[in-house]
Specification:
heterodimer; A: about 260 residues; alpha/beta; Rossmann fold; 6-stranded mixed β-sheet; 3-stranded antiparallel β-sheet; 9 helices; globular; B: about 260 residues; mainly alpha; ABC transporter involved in vitamin B12 uptake, BtuC; 11 helices
Chain lengths: ~260, ~260
């Protein structure tokens, strides 16, 4: 495999006397979606912040591919109401490209109509799309998403994960996804890492879902194989922004259908 | 009349023009009280300048910067809230400044002029200096606008995208210190916050983009300076407070307009 985008070797992180991350080995590769799962307080966000360079490891090594461009999607940005900022202006901050490129990035994530809307009026799902557009505009090599599905309903989450898989295939960027929900994320993922301050288990979604450590972590929450399989092919139909399946649930095979499973 | 009013007018316009975009940043970043604290500390800087017999402006800028760094250091602890710290530092430095000035009986200083400004006494030389400073600050603002706005939107996001957050914050404090040093002679240390905050607040309702708000704040500031001078000329009121009252009047007028 080619040089990893980011490689962590035996990384430890102490925050205010707590040993948040213990002996973490992690490699993020291009065109791969890696999902971090684990209970609340397991250090998922801290690990993401180490990858982003917002936390410096207490020990261990962090290697980044030279010139790596990262696109970061926090859960949600809280922007003060005193700041008059449209989506267009928000994207301009990431990259002062021509207005048409900003429009194209928004069109790619199906929210072109938001271009001149004040950012304070965006819903959770709209924010995620706008942040994704911002990462696309910067041609990021690695996207880091912190709980992108919070405040978005199940079908909307599914649409978002489908979109991420498309982005991975088109841009060949690596994606690091943080989540605490299980099966929805598993479907769109190449590799799953279960974190509880240390890496409990990792591997493909199928392998991890059979790992006893994974079941221990979630208190025996069952993920039936059939459920996984169902979701694996769930992004074959078109969704609008809020995740409603178009045309009364009939499967509309869009132009992206079938491209993203090799 | 024009020879009398021209220097104060030009000086006031220089401060108001810069106070527009700077005030917008102060409002967005919720730094109003922070700016106020720096302004209070400016008086201590002025007292040191008098004691050491050095030039006023460098001493004030230096004092504001030291104070900004002290405040940043104090904010690292979590026991006391930000506004408590700022209130404490603001009034301690103000008290120290007044004591330091009173300990120098050989120096005749009009304390009132420092606190509330003395726009009518500025000379053409002052005006030249003020405009040099104004052009410098505006140039840096234009050059660094995207960085400044990025850290205002979200510091983590800015840092991930390669903006030096600490550097940009220090730059903003430096600019604020420069502006306060310049404004100390025009509206005075107690009123500078209002010239930063009121025009920017007035511009908010009428703006759709950050840049609109910054420019509109400058324009409102300019109106406030002209209005304040006119009021002062005809009603014989003190200039600094008149400018602030004019700014507040503009804010009230903007309330009549529907929100943009």
């Amino acid at each position: 495999m080619s040089q990893p985008l980011v490689a962590l070797r035996d990384v430890n992180l102490q925050l205010g006397g707590t040993h948040v991350l213990q002996h973490i080995d992690l490699q993020l590769h291009k065109a791969r979606i890696t999902t971090l799962i684990g209970p609340n307080g397991a250090g998922k966000t801290s690990l993401a912040k180490v990858v982003l360079g917002l936390h410096t490891p207490s020990s261990g090594t962090l290697t980044r591919k030279p010139g790596l461009k990262i696109g970061y999607m926090p859960q949600r940005l809280r922007i003060d109401d005193s700041l008059p900022l449209t989506v267009d202006r928000f994207l301009w901050l990431a990259d002062p490209a021509h207005k048409n490129e900003r429009r194209a990035a928004l069109e790619r994530v199906d929210v072109a109509e938001l271009q001149f809307k004040p950012v304070q009026q965006l819903s959770g799902g709209e924010w995620q799309r706008v942040l994704l557009a911002r990462a696309l505009l910067r041609k990021a090599d690695l996207l880091v998403l912190d709980e992108p599905a919070q405040g978005v309903d199940v079908i909307g989450q599914n649409a978002l994960y489908g979109l991420l898989a498309e982005v991975r295939d088109e841009m060949h960027c690596g994606i690091l996804l943080i989540s605490h929900d299980l099966h929805l994320v598993m479907a769109a993922t190449d590799e799953v890492i279960c974190l509880q301050h240390h890496v409990c288990c990792s591997g493909t979604p199928e392998a991890v879902s059979k790992d006893p450590a994974f079941h221990d972590m979630f208190g025996g929450a069952q993920i039936p194989a059939a459920n996984l399989a169902l979701y694996t092919h769930d992004h074959d139909h078109a969704h609008d922004l809020h995740g409603n399946v178009d045309a009364d649930g009939n499967h509309i095979h869009g132009d992206h259908c079938g491209h993203h499973h090799d | 009349m024009i020879e009398l009013l021209l220097p104060p007018l030009l000086a006031g316009l220089a401060v108001a023009t810069v106070a527009g975009p700077m005030g917008a940043l102060v409002v967005w970043r919720r730094m109003a009280f922070f700016g106020d604290t720096l302004a209070h500390g400016a008086l201590l800087g002025a007292a040191f300048a008098l004691a050491a017999d050095i030039s006023l402006y460098p001493a004030v800028v230096l004092m504001c910067l030291c104070l900004a760094l002290v405040l940043v250091a104090l904010q690292q602890q979590r026991q006391l809230a930000n506004d408590t710290l700022l209130g404490m530092v603001a009034h301690t430095t103000l008290a120290l400044g007044i004591i330091a000035i009173s300990l120098q009986p050989e120096v005749r200083v009009d304390l009132f002029a420092f606190l509330f400004g003395d726009l009518l006494s500025v000379s053409f030389a002052d005006v030249a200096w003020l405009w040099c400073g104004a052009v410098l600050i505006l140039a840096i603002l234009v050059f660094s606008w995207r960085r400044l706005l990025s850290i205002t939107v979200d510091e983590d996001l800015a840092q991930v995208e390669g903006v030096s957050v600490t550097g940009t914050r220090i730059l903003l404090m430096l600019l604020l210190a420069l502006l306060i040093a310049g404004a100390i002679r025009t509206v005075g240390v107690l009123l500078i916050t209002s010239l930063l905050v009121i025009p920017a607040a007035s511009a908010r309702r009428l703006s759709h983009t950050p840049e609109q708000m910054a420019v509109l704040a400058s324009i409102f500031g300019i109106f406030a300076v002209i209005g304040g001078l006119v009021l002062s000329w005809f009603a014989d009121t003190p200039v600094g407070p008149s400018v602030v009252v004019a700014a507040a009047a503009i804010f009230i007028l903007t309330l009549a307009r529907k929100k943009a």
